[in-house]
Amino acid sequence: MDSSFPDWNIEFREQNESYFMESSSCDMSLAMSLLSIIIAIIGLTGNVIVLQLLGFHMHRNAFSVYIFNLSGANFLFLCTHIVFSLENLIRQFHYIDIHMALFSVNVTILAYLAGVSMITAISVEYWLSVLWPTWYHAQRPKHTSTVICTLLWVFSLLLTLWNWIICKVLDYIYNWDMCWKLALIIVVWLLVLFVVLSRSNQALLFRVFCGSQQTPVTRLLVTIMLTALVVLICGFGIGICFFYWKKEENSIMPCGYFYETILLLSGVNSCANPIICLFVGSIKHCQFQCGTLRLILQRAIQESPEEEDEEVEEVVEQEGGEEDEESTTL
User: Fold this and answer.
1) Spatial distance between the Cα atoms of 177 and 69, rounded to a whole number of angstroms
2) Diameter over CA atoms, the chain
3) What is the helix (H) or strand (E) element at residue 235, kind and residue range?
4) Class of the 31-325 domain?
5) Tens digits of per-residue pLDDT, 223-241?
6) Alpha carbon of 269 to those of 78, 126, 229, 236, 272: distances in Å?
7) Which keywords label this protein?
């Protein structure tokens, strides 16, 4: 009897198991890429609606300015998110030995940094409004939100341009040390943002449930808390991925097999805010109530307690009626 037969049988079984694992991994990667594209399309639609309503159909306040800029950052991020998901999807059928588009990478970095900065600024500002309500409503400069959003966009843009110049224009190979230090600076900035975001939300929770002077729960507070929770759970992975990508000298597939998961979570992070606004704005007295998208968004960013809802709805309906009359006249 040929003694090599058992070895051949074992080798054949190992090859079958390897093929099955590779096939299952490919199917999972394909499904996650398709799911990422679907999530990105939903997120783009939601953020466009928020941008349109806050930009042209609603009066802005301090927090709506932040939410408007957050939606803008999420919109930019999701645009490049679709590019990366499509690229990953194509690789399932045909290997392409190209790096991700330079423009898309830089826009992703800019949008991601700006988005995390905006939600942190929203959380800190709400915490300040709860901690010092008299100063906030009486002495706070009128255009503080606009100034802060502008500074955050500029700072995010400077970090992105610095990354592009040092790691691409001046050649990554000859400036590896500088590029690595820049990646470290970006990650440290992200860590600062996430620490401030988590601590400010913890302080808000403590003030609401355990403080001597309990703060009333408003829809805006719920919107901020839920959005911050999604960012902390789903948004931190792509920052780690960026750091790892720099460490591995700009590999084509950053973070290896976790790339699809991180891509999916980052898409969820960027499309969560419109869905949260829709969810929070649709609840009234613990029941779902329908209404126009404008009214739902107005409820979601309402600073006053739920008991004062009727006044807000009357104002929104009057404004909507005035706009309808103007459009009819035109």
Assistant:
1) 34
2) 98
3) none
4) mainly alpha
5) 999 999 999 999 888 877 7
6) 10, 21, 10, 10, 5
7) G-protein coupled receptor, Glycoprotein, Membrane, Receptor, Transducer, Transmembrane, Transmembrane helix
The string over 114-149, giving b where at least 16 C-beta atoms fall within 10 Å of a residue's C-beta and e elsewhere, is: bbbbbbbbbbbbbbebbeeeeebeeeeeeeebbebb
The residue to which tokens 């700006």 are assigned: 114
Q: Please, what is the end-to-end C-alpha distance for the chain in angstroms? A: 96
Of 179-188, 204-213, 298-307, the poorest mean pLDDT is in 298-307
Task: Determine which of 147-151, 263-267, 271-275 has the lowest per-residue pLDDT on average.
Answer: 263-267
- What's the pLDDT at 98? 53
CB count within 10 Å of CB 32 equals 18
- Name the token pair of 209: 């449930």
268: nearest Cα among 77, 56, 50, 18: 77
Compute how many other C-beta atoms are within 10 angstroms of the C-beta atom of residue 279.
16
**CA 330 – CA 6 distance, rounded (Å):** 86
195 close to 258: Cβ distance less than 8 angstroms: no
Q: Residue 303: which H helix or E strand, with range?
A: none
Cα(263)–Cα(256) distance, integer angstroms: 12
pLDDT bin (cut points 50, 70, 90) of residue 209 is confident
For the chain, how big is the Rg over CA atoms in Å? 24
pLDDT in tens, 164-189: 888 777 765 566 777 778 888 888 99
CA–CA dist 133, 65 (Å, integer): 19
Element (H, E) at 86: helix 62-91
Q: Give me the amino acid identity at 236.
A: F
Token couple for 283: 């609840």
Q: Is the pTM of this model over 0.70?
A: yes
Q: Are 47 and 274 in contact (CB under 8 A)?
A: yes
| C-alpha span between 108 and 113 (Å, rounded) | 8
- φ, ψ of residue 248 in degrees (nearest 5): -90, 20
pLDDT tens digits for 37-59?
Answer: 899 999 999 999 999 999 887 87
